[in-house]
Amino acid sequence: MRTVIKNGHVIDIKSGLNKVTDIVIEDGIVASVEENADILGAEVIDAEGLYVVPGLIDAHCHLRDPGFEYKEDIETGTKSAAKGGFTSVACMPNTNPVIDNETVVNYIKDKAAREGYVHVFPIGAISKGLKGELLSEIGELKFAGAVGISDDGKPVVSSGLMKKALIYSSMFDITVISHCEDMSLVEEGVMNEGYNSTIMGLKGIPSAAEETMIARDLILSEYTGVPIHIAHVSTKLGIQLIRDAKKRGVKVTCETCPHYFSLTDDSCLGFNTLAKVNPPLRRQEDVDAVIEGLKDGTIDIIATDHAPHHKDEKNLEFGYAANGMVGFETALPLAITNLYHKGHMSLEAIIEKMTINPAKMLGLAKGDISVGKMCDITIFDANKEYTVDISKFESKSKNSPFDGYSVKGAVKYTIVDGNIVVRDGMLM
Amino acid sequence: MSMLNSKDLLGLKDVTKEEIELILDTAKTMKMILTSKAKNAPHLRGKSIITLFYENSTRTRLSFELASKYLGATAANISASGSSVAKGETLIDTGKTIDMMGTDVIIMRHNMSGAPHLLAKHVEASVINAGDGMNEHPTQALLDMFTMREKFGKLEGLKVSIIGDIYHSRVARSNIWGLTKLGAEVTVAGPATIMPPEIGKMGAKVFTTVQEALIDADVVMGLRIQLERQKKGLFPSEREYSRFFGIDDKRLMLANKNRLVMHPGPVNRGLEFTSSVIDSDDSVINEQVTNGVAIRMAILYLLTREEQ
Fold first, then answer.
1. Is A284 touching B (CB cutoff 8 A)?
2. Rounded to a whole number, what is the distance in Å from the CA of B54 to chain A's nearest CA?
3. Is A296 annotated as catalytic?
4. Residue A230 DSSP SS3
5. Do A320 and B112 touch (CB under 8 A)?
6. What CATH architecture applies to the domain A2-51+374-382+404-427?
């Protein structure tokens, strides 16, 4: 089986490839990258005018399986991921049961192998049951296939436990991913604290709740010498703290999500629960700082934090509504629209943060286009304009604040292990 | 369409100056009905009005029920504890059920900010917000404004000082929106830990001493201090609150000679105001209650009356 991607503009950060050329795929493996490749007997993908990049990797998503299959399951979640151009996704452990043991890791891997449209890499829990009390069996999780550990959705409240998690995980070369939130500052907050929370009479979440915890985790990483990854960074000072730490040599990486560079807390006005997310949407100056952090390399990764919720969990009073938004199918278009077309970043810089950087953080031998390796490739049109329509999402849940949002940039093909999973924007 | 711009009254943030003036003018007539010997008028005859309260209330609820009945409506009430709400039914489902029983107006109080906005989107009936979380309590602010206008003749140029727990107060928010639209100058003061961020941008002047806020005030409005806030550590003690923010006769002297003392109730005597302030000639706390019925009669009438 031979496939040739013809005349696409190939961007591969690892090899530095950045030109119009052809890619030949044979039996799922990248056979060659060459101009004027022989198309005899091959299926040809005409990529003229399109960009061809390593399959996108999402370092942070929620597939809700096992336990919350009414929101999403591995099949629908990976369909949605494929539609968004992701060929690998790392799913967070706040499932039921929690991913804190080998059995659950195996369940996810097996189900993904049977029903998944893209590669699925589970992230294990830092603490047993996400309770923040005792370390989970991190060694077992690593050997079962977990690619990171995190109590995402909740902070590790105890500094002592976080220190132990860092030291213990360093034996197994697995990254600790921290959800930074000081709950004593959050209290009953449901949106960013500021003018908008004041005029809606909603309790605010101060940006300091995120920042104090980032500061703590940076100190613990610096003290132990163990790398740490900060999830979903959303505030100006949080980014500045990470920037300063990186300058000191702290081994910190971090991610942000498309909604933090695309929306402010104005989206919550009118009690719009689709804009309720944690960390909350912030002010314009935070949005600007996120963009600046992406530009100067402080922020390494663009992740989705794809967080599906049933409509009944959103069609509620704002305070009762669930936090989170689906993100797979809007991530790349939003990045291209709000970072590339607005002149903030090159496509290369965006692709780096959605391919090789998440691969490095998670320890995956992916995120590149290399001859001899299994072929995960995403092909997109950077100039196609369309309007986001949530009813067309492959995800089981439609909780996105981007319905009706105009974007410029569309996924055309998603190729996983050489198989065309999305063809001309349609899921196969 | 009703006589107001929207089918609902959810807050004063989104109503116009003209709508507020129409409500206040209509309430004047309603007060005449209310204070007459025969308190039955036909304005709401044939209309069905439901009060749906997710929080305890005596005066607001009673005030709405009497307003409905004085104008000839069929009125019924539901409490969150005595209905399917307690069994976990969603607000939208509860609202649709009420809507399907021929209801013209749903008056709702809810502990969550924005709840009436959600309800209003899903029912045909008019929704009146009788207080939602910390967001708004428009009928209270309207009765406050009615009371002020009755005493001073106009609201423009009035200096209104609101003292207390501004953060948790829907009364404060509605009053700021409404009063500033009608040209009054609003000042707020209270402990900094219960002052909402950036409230100045709503159009209020913010002080952290009660003295500064009281100087030359035409209206001194106290807000109820709730004990559970103190238990959450938002201020150290009631004693300390009343020392720095409580209003006694001496502090009241800082205000204008022709001042009004107002409070949405229920009052903690000796905490927000001393008893002598509450019982002084400046106090219109009891008149506020009467005016509350008149305002609610006016709103019910305006929302249910078809435009001619």
1. no
2. 13
3. no
4. strand
5. yes
6. Roll (2.30)
Cβ-defined contact of A315 to B92 (cutoff 8 Å): yes
Select from B90, B91, B134 the Cβ nearest to the Cβ of A201: B134
Domain limits of chain A? 2-51+374-382+404-427, 55-362
| φ, ψ at B157 (rounded to 5°) | 85, -10
SS3 at position A186: helix
CA-CA-CA-CA torsion sign (B192, B194, B198, B201): negative
A-chain CB neighbours of B92 within 8 Å are 315
Nearest alpha carbon to residue B160 among B203, B117, B121: B203
The Cα of B188 is separated from the nearest Cα of chain A by a number of Å equal to 14
The CA angle B26-B9-A400, to the nearest 5 degrees, is 165
DSSP string, B187-242: EEE--GGGS-TTGGGGTEEEESSHHHHHTT-SEEEE-PPPHHHHHTTSSS-HHHHH
Looking at domain A55-362, does it have CATH number 3.20.20.140? yes
Please give the structure tokens belonging to residue A339. Answer: 């970072």
Active-site pick, A73, A265, A286, A305: A305
- The shortest CB-CB distance from B112 to any of A194, A198, A319 is to A319
Distances (CA, A) of A240 to A180, A243, A247, A295: 15, 5, 11, 13
Domains and CATH numbers, chain B: 17-136+289-304 (3.40.50.1370), 138-285 (3.40.50.1370)
**Closest by CA position to B222, among listed B248, B250, B257, B258:** B248
Residue B31: predicted pLDDT? 97
| A341-388 tens-digit pLDDT | 999 999 999 999 999 999 999 999 999 999 999 999 999 999 999 999
**ipTM > 0.90 for the complex:** yes
A319 touches chain B (CB under 8 A): yes
pLDDT in tens, A140-171: 999 999 999 999 999 999 999 999 999 999 99
Contact A218, A249 (CB under 8 A): no
Contact A118, A78 (CB under 8 A): yes
